[in-house]
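Lab notebook, bench 4. Still working through the backlog of constructs that have no structural model yet. Next entry is a single chain of 162 residues. Request: give me the C-alpha cells for it.
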Amino acid sequence: MKLTKLILLLFSCLLFNSCWPPREPEEITTRYIPITVTRAELNKITLQDPKPTVKNEKIYLKDQYIFVNDRRDGFHIIDNSDPANPKKLKYLKALGSTDVAIRNDILYINQARDLVALKINTSNNSIQLLKRIENVFPALKSPDGFEAPADNDKIVIDWKEK
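Model written out:
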C-alpha cells in the first residue's frame, strides 16, 4: 500500500511538473533585417536618366510606353513606339514602389505603405505630385512573416537576409 501511494505521488509530481513553475516563452526571431528609410526619403520621387535594370518585377503598358518596376526602387520608362527598337527614356526613382496603374495620364503608385498620384513629363523632366495618402497599405512583413518594430519616422521598404 505504501509503495502504491509513493508511486501515485511521484506520478502526480511528474504530471504537474510542466505546469509549475511557469516557463518563459522562447523568443522567436526572424532571419531578416528590415531596410528602412525616413518619411522624407520616401517622399522624394525623382525622374532620372535611364539606368540598368536590377530586379525586374511588374510590367505596365500605357499607349506606346512600358513601365517596368525595378523591385522596391522605381520604374523604368520605355518608349515602345517602335517595338523592334524600344528605347529607355527615364527612370522614375520611387523607393519602396511595387506597382503602378495609370488612368487619364495620372500614375498611381504603391510606394511602401503609401498611395501616390502623380503626373510626369519626360520632355522637361518634371514630376507633379498630385496627392499622397499615407499608410494605405499594411506594413511590409519579412519573408518569414515578421513585422519590424514600430517607428514613426522609419518605413520598411524591403528585407534582407542576416
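Notes after review: The helical segments are 2-16, 39-43. Residues 2 and 57 are 74 Å apart (CA to CA). Flag for follow-up if needed.
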